[in-house]
Amino acid sequence: MTDLPPDLPRLRTLERWLALALAEVRQAIAVAEQREAERQRGIAARPPAPDWLLEQGLTGRVPVYVHAGGCHMAGRRSRPATAGQARQALAEGVDACPHCRPDTGLGYLDG
């Protein structure tokens, strides 16, 4: 490292600056590790996904689709449902999602 100053005062100044910079990096690492640990705890504490979903229409009163719990097509207006509620909705004429096919998973054949 030939770019270092030759005299002791400037070397000590450089040493002090590097120590401060290292302290900042270590603090940033500690914050990032804490943030990651909190994220992992959040993932672990997340409730399990529901097995079935009823997607509400624009009015929010009548379901328009029945979805399997992990369906990527379920909209924001979806709410959890039991298997019985999902079967009842299918029996009442609510459409089964054509992507996740919840009627097949529920054993509902009259749709």
Explain how this protein is built:
The protein has about 110 residues and is an alpha+beta fold. The protein folds into 2 domains: about 40 residues; about 55 residues, no CATH class. Helix content is about 45%, strand content about 15%. The protein contains 3 helices and 4 strands, in the order αβββαβα. It has a 4-stranded mixed sheet with strand order 3-1-2-4. Strand 1 and strand 2 form a beta hairpin. The longest helix is centred in the first third of the chain and has 38 residues. It is rod-shaped, with a radius of gyration of 29 Å. The model has no long low-confidence stretch (mean pLDDT about 90).
List the defining traits of the structure above:
single chain; 111 residues; alpha+beta; 4-stranded mixed β-sheet; 3 helices; rod-shaped
Average residue pLDDT: 91
* β-sheet strand percentage: 15-25%
| Overall form | rod-shaped
Q: What's the helix-strand series?
A: HEEEHEH
* Lateral arrangement of strands in the main beta sheet: 3-1-2-4
Taking all Cα atoms into account, the compactness measure Rg is 29 Å
Would you report the number of β strands?
4
Q: What percentage of residues falls in helices of 4 or more residues?
A: 40-55%
Biggest sheet descriptor:
4 strands, mixed
Instruction: Please tell me the total number of domains.
Output: 2
Number of helices: 3
End-to-end separation: 77 Å
SS class: alpha+beta
Low-pLDDT parts are none
